[in-house]
What does this fold into?
Amino acid sequence: MKLHLAGDKPINADQFEKQELTKLGMPDEIVMRHRTPQFAHIFADDGYSAGYYSYLWSDVHSADAFEAFTEAGGPYDKAVAKRLLDHVFSVGGTVEESEGYKAFRGKNPSIAALMKNRGFPYNGK
It folds into this structure.
């Protein structure tokens, strides 16, 4: 956060890290596992945040799709697998992705399964 608050001010990453670790009272024996320059992609532009959002949206789809299997009794339910194959996996770009998913699932994807998988209570509101 302190990097973000620095604004346009040029920052020497090595100097910045040493200064902040000293302020925290970090023992010399504990070295940084990840160095500040390894996070340049976070600060470069909006591409990373957009990419992160798409990863999260993929997680929503994955959890919701697996929920279709658990609702049907288990991960090997043949009818659910056939719907997934017919409406998502085999259609490629021939149908709008959201329409294919809806045809498979019977509804739009919901964050409920992802929230449950991650241990958060979710009441659908």
